[in-house]
Amino acid sequence: MRMHVTQKDIADALGISRVTVTKALKDHPDIAEGTIKRIKDMAKELGYYPNFIASSLSSKRSNLIGAIFPKINHSFFSNAIESVYKAATERGFEILPMISFEDASREIRMVATLLSMRVAGIIVAISQGTKSNEIYKNAKKLGVPVVFLDRTLKDESFSSVTINDYKAAYDVIEYAISIGYKKIAYLAGYSHINIGIDRCNGFKAALEGNGISINPAWIIEGGFTPEFGYEGLKKLSNASEMPELIFAVNDSVAHGIYKAADELSIKIPDDLGVIGCGDIEHSQLLSPPLTSVHMPIESMACKAVEVLIDEINNPGVSECQHLVNETEIRIRESILPEKRSVT
User: What's the rounded Cα separation, in Å, for the pair 39 and 7?
Assistant: First the structure.
């Protein structure tokens, strides 16, 4: 079994000291340019790669940032990962991405792995099953800052970059009401997560603010996946009265609604209007294209990196930041331009 090439191997090959190799690989001014080139050429020839973990242990500083997201085959989070990676590398850090697949126990194991690898900090969008911040509190005790992106557990002791979920839901429901929709259902995410409870509260406030009674049977809690959207519409279709419009906690849930509507021969938007949240790329390709709340995920991801690096560079000094981003409604053909409710 081939062992990893070390700086000592390079030093032995050239007959020089390991200290000289270490300095040359860091372009230290004490080392002549010709020597630096000779050492780097040998490193390339031998197949040398830096040991980030060993380096962080010796220097007591790492340039690795862990990034945990619930999904990867999802344009919202894949765009987030790309944006985090770009922002971090531009600032001299490397990203170690991990995917929880919406599994809380897997997420906990990933945080433990990242801590064992001596990451400098962690950016995370929590899974739909995550209910405790304990593992992140442990990270903080170890001096590893954590920044929550999009999804949080509403713990003010951690920095976060989110949208105004309450206002996003309120505004889009008020718009739907303004064009004539009155009978509106909501397929909600889990209420222990910010996007679940805040969007639900915004939904309810918009109805009440416009004199529309809330029908508890039309608010269904159950997650953030297409499967939940599919089952949610199936459940609503078996009730004595169907809503005119369904607001989905995110676009993935809305996609599940589309699948169930097709099986039930429910026409969107003629029989049922659908609105999502997140405005992922695939939503524009649905038939009909999905009306959704657009979130500036690329800039949100960059801000999360900036906040995290600030906390890494200023341990114990930087105060927690809670950056709230604005959204906009992208109107498409999944709702009627003017709805005439039947009373």
Answer: 10
